[in-house]
Amino acid sequence: MMISQPVSRTDGRVKVTGCARYAADYSAADLLHAVLVTATIPVGRVTSIAVDDALAEKGVVRVLTHEDMPKFGRFTSPRPGADTEAPEGPPVAQSFMPMQGDEIRHEGQPVAIVLGGTLEAAEAGAHRVRLHYERGDAELPVAADWTAIDKAAVEPKESGFLFVEPTFSKGEIDDGLANAAATVEAVYLQPSRHHNAMEPSATLAEWNDSELTLHDATKHVYGVRQVLAARMNIPVEKVRVISRHTGGGFGGKGWIWPHQVLAAAAARITGRPVRLALSRANAYSCLGYQPRMAQKIVLAADRSGKLTAMQQDVVNLTTVTDDFVEFATEASKGLYATPAMRLRQRVERAHVAMPTPMRAPVEGPGTWALESAMDELAHRLVIDPLDLRLVSHADTDPATGRPWSSKKLREAYEEGARLFGWRERPREPQRDGDWLIGYGMATCSMGCFRNPTPAAEVRLHRDGTVLVRTGTQDIGTGTLTIFPQIAADVLGLPMEKVELEMGDTQLPEAGPTYGSSSTKGVGAAVLAAAEDARSQLARLANLLPYKVEMQDGHIRRKGVAGGQTIADVMHHTDVGEVIGSGSFDPAQHGKGLAMRTFGAIFMEVGVDPGLGLLRLRRAVGSYSAGRIINPRTARSQMTGGIIWGWGMAAMEQSKHEPMLGRFLSKNLSGVAIPVNADIPGDIIIHFVDEVDEHASPIGGKGIGELGATGVAAAVANAVFDATGKRIRELPITPEKLL
After folding, report:
1. List of domains in the chain
2. Which residues participate in catalysis according to the annotation?
3. Phi then psi dihedrals of residue 237, to 5 deg
4. 689-694-700 Cα angle (round to 5)
5. Start-to-end C-alpha separation, the chain
6. Distances in whole angstroms, Cα of residue 400 to Cα of each of 167, 338, 405
7. What residues does 456 pair with on adjacent strands?
8. Please, what is the average pLDDT of the chain?
9. Pairing of strands 596-608, 435-447
10. d(CA 503, CA 509)
11. Which of 42, 496, 545, 596 could pair with 538 in a Cys bridge, judged by C-beta atoms 3.0 to 4.6 Å apart?
12. CB atoms inside a 10 Å sphere around CB 232
C-alpha cells in the first residue's frame, strides 16, 4: 500500500538544487524583455506620455502605450446560466483592463510597456518615460473605526464575485438576544496583506502565426487559456499554456490578471517573444491581495454556554471597478449550532487595486473574528473556552440542517487538548523571567471546495513503467508526490516506476489548483484512471476486473499467489501500452450532504510587557480532514499553515497611505513575515482517523488552507490569557502590548 504512507517529496531535489524551471526561467530566440510603467496617482487620466528619452536608451526597442494596444475581447463566463451580458468574474481577476484608454483607476496601474533586448535596458528605459496627468477626485479609504467604515459600506453588486448571497438569516435573532444570559458585542479589524510569493509572477508569450504559447506562473493553465483566447479574440485551441512549476501561489496566481494579457498583446504587436516578469512593486498593484476588513460580531448564549443568537456584519475593501467580496460570514454559517443567525456582507469601494483570495480566504478572516468573540463569551460566562465550543457543537450544518458527509471535530478537540495539555494548563497568569505566559485555542474550519470534473490519464507501459498525465499545476503542495502514490498504489508498483506529467493545456483538463481541492479532485481522477488501466489489463489477462489485484509488477486474482507479469500480458496480446482515463464528478458524490473540514489549534505564547514582544512558544493543531494520502506532505502543509496564521496574527500588514493612494512599502524590505527564529520546533500536527468517500473517492477533503484558520484568534486569546489585554486589531504589534 502506497496510499497513506509518508513518502518523501519526489520534487524535493530538483527544487532545492535549482533544477526546477519556473516561468521566468524559460527563454526564446529573439526575446524581448518587458517592463511596466505604472501610474503614480490613484485616480485621473493620462494626458501625455513622452517616450523619446526612453527610446534613446541603448537596447530599448519599443515603448507601447494604450494607443498601440488592440481592443481586447470580453471573456464570457462558463458558469451555468451566465450570458454575454453577465459580469465576467473568475477566472478573470478583474473586468477592468488597463491600457485600453487614458483612465487611471488606481496607483500602480500599467500605462506603458517598455521593451528591450535586455532586462536592464528595458528597466532603464522605463525610468525615462515621462507621464503627465490630469488628477481626479477620489474618496480613498481612510476609515479607522467601525462607525466610519460602516458609514462608507455599501451592498455589493454582482461583479462575478457573489458566490453566495451577501446576506443570510434564520430564526428570530431578537428573541435570541433578549433571552440570553450573556452577550458579547465587538469589532475585529485586520489590515490588507499581500502575498509576496518567492517567485514573482511572470509570463513568456510567443506567437507562431496565429497560435499563442505562454509559459506562465499560474495556478490554472486552462483558465489562462480561456481568458487569453477571449482577450486576443482567437479560438481556445490556438492557445497553449505551460506551467511546470509555480513558486508560491496562495491565491495571487489563481485568477488571470492584466499583465498576462499585456504580455501576449506586446508579443503580437512586435512579432517577437516577450517575457514580462513583475517586479516586487508591480505585485502590489498588478496582482490581488487580501483586503482590509472590519467585522462586527454579536454573540448571545444561555447560562450553559449554548448559543442563542449570532449576528455578524462584515465590510471589506474593494476597487471601484469590481466588488470583490471576502465572505467571512461563511465561517459563522458552518461552525456552531444556534437557533438564530443574521449575517451580512458589504464592501467599501475605493481607488485601490483589485483584491483577491489569499491563503485561507473566507474562513481565515471569519475565524479571526468569530473565534475571538467565542473566547470573550467564554470568559464572560466563566466557562472553559473548549467547553463553550463543545456545548454548541453542530451535529448538522447550522445553516441548512443537512447532515455532514463526515465530521470528527469532537475527536480533534479531545486529541488536541490531550497533546497540548489544555485541561492541565495553569489557570492563573504565569511568568518565565520577563515573559508572561498565556494559553489560547480556537476552532479551525474550511469549506470543501470541489472543482467540476477534473480529468487524468494513466499510461501503463509493457516494461511496467507508468506515466500519469493531468493538466493541473504544481504549486509546491506535494501533488507531484501524491498523484504518483495513488497510481502506484492501484497498480502495485514502486514509486520510482511512476512518472508524472502536468502543467500543460495539452494534457487532460484538471481545473485550478486552489481551494485545497487538488488532492481530493485530481487525485480522484488519477485513481479512476489507474483503476481503468488495471481493468483493461485484467481483460487482456482474461481476468474479471473487479476480482484482480496488482503487486510487484504482477496481476492476479485477489488472494491468489503468483499471477502474470505486466510484460507477459502485453507481450502475449501484442499491446505496447494500456491507456486508462478517469475523471471525478462532484455531482455524483455527497449529494444532499454538507461538507467541511474541521480542527482545533492550541497555542502557548510569551509576552514581554516591557518591550512589547510577542513570541510563539509551542502549538498543537488537531484536524478532522478526511483521509490523509501522505502524512509527511500533509504535516508540512499544516505546519506551514500555522506559520502563515502566526504571520497574520503578529506581523503582516500592508499599510495604505490615503493621501498618496498607494501602499507604503512595495518591496520585501518593509514586509515583516515569520522566519525560522520566530517559529519554535515544538509544533505538533495530529490528524484524526477519518475517511470521507462522500467528498471524494479517495476519502480526502483538503487540508492546505485549514491549518491557517483559527490561528490569529488563538494567538489573541493567548495574549489575553497572559496579559488581560483584549486585542481586536491585527497584527498584534508591540505598541498594542506595551
Report:
1. 23-136+198-248+253-283 (3.90.1170.50), 146-193+290-449+592-737 (3.30.365.10), 453-584 (3.30.365.10)
2. 705
3. -70, -10
4. 45
5. 55
6. 14, 12, 13
7. 582
8. 95
9. antiparallel
10. 10
11. 545
12. 21
Question: 581 φ, ψ to 5°?
Answer: -120, 145
Q: How far apart are CA 597 and CA 87, in angstroms?
A: 31
For 453, counting Cβ atoms within 10 Å of its Cβ (0-12 exposed, 13-18 middle, 19+ buried), the class is: middle
**Average confidence (pLDDT) over 116-131:** 98
**Alpha-carbon span 356 to 512, nearest angstrom:** 15
Cell of 116: 528591450
What are the phi and psi torsion angles at 666 (to 5°)?
A: -115, 45
| 191/358 Cα distance (integer angstroms) | 13
- Residue 522 has φ and ψ, to the nearest 5°, of -65, -35
Q: What is the share, in percent, of the chain residues with pLDDT greater than 90? A: 93
Residue 141 pLDDT class (50, 70, 90 cuts): low
Say whether the peptide bond before residue 731 is cis (omega within 30 degrees of 0). yes
pLDDT digits (tens, 9 = 90+) for 53-86: 999 999 999 999 999 999 999 998 665 555 556 7
Q: What is the C-alpha to C-alpha distance for residues 635 and 633, in angstroms, rounded to an integer?
A: 5
Greatest distance between any 2 Cα atoms in the chain: 82
The predicted pLDDT at position 255 comes to 97
| Three cell numbers, residue 665 | 512599502
> What whole-number distance in Å separates Cα of residue 552 and Cα of residue 564?
10
At residue 616, what are phi and psi to the nearest 5 degrees? Answer: -85, 125
Q: Is the dihedral of CA 338, 339, 340, 345 positive or negative?
A: positive
**Of 204, 358, 199, residue with least CA distance to 280:** 199
In what helix (H) or strand (E) does residue 637 lie, and over which residues does it extend?
helix 631-650
pLDDT at 669: 86
Residue 229 φ then ψ, to 5°: -60, -45
Q: For residues 604 and 420, what is the distance between their CA atoms, to the nearest angstrom?
A: 9
Q: Quick one: cell of 605?
A: 505564547
DSSP strands (E only) in 102-201: 103-104, 110-116, 130-135, 167-170, 182-190
Report the alpha-carbon distance of residue 12 to residue 501 in Å, rounded: 16
Closest CA to 254 of 212, 285, 217, 281: 217
The residue among 311, 446, 304 whose CA lies nearest residue 387 is 304
Question: Which grid cell is 190?
Answer: 485586520
**pLDDT tens-place string over residues 298-312:** 999 999 999 999 999
Cβ pair 64, 261 in contact under 8 A: no
Instruction: Count CB neighbours of 301 within 10 A.
Output: 28
E strand or H helix that includes residue 470: strand 466-470
What is the distance between the alpha carbons of residues 524 and 78, in angstroms, rounded to a whole number? 23
Rounded to an integer, the average pLDDT of 253-258 is 97
- On whether the CB atoms of residues 77 and 126 are closer than 8 A, the answer is no
- The DSSP symbol for 658 reads T
Residue 622 DSSP SS3: strand
- Cα–Cα distance measured from residue 559 to residue 557, given in angstroms and rounded to the nearest whole number: 6
Identify the pLDDT of residue 85: 64
Q: Which residues contact 677 (CB under 8 A, 6 or more apart)?
A: none
Distance CA 29, CA 27 (A): 7
List Cβ neighbours of 676 (8 Å cut-off, separation of 6 or more). none
- For 50, other C-beta atoms within 10 Å of its C-beta total 12
Q: Is the pLDDT of residue 704 over 60?
A: yes
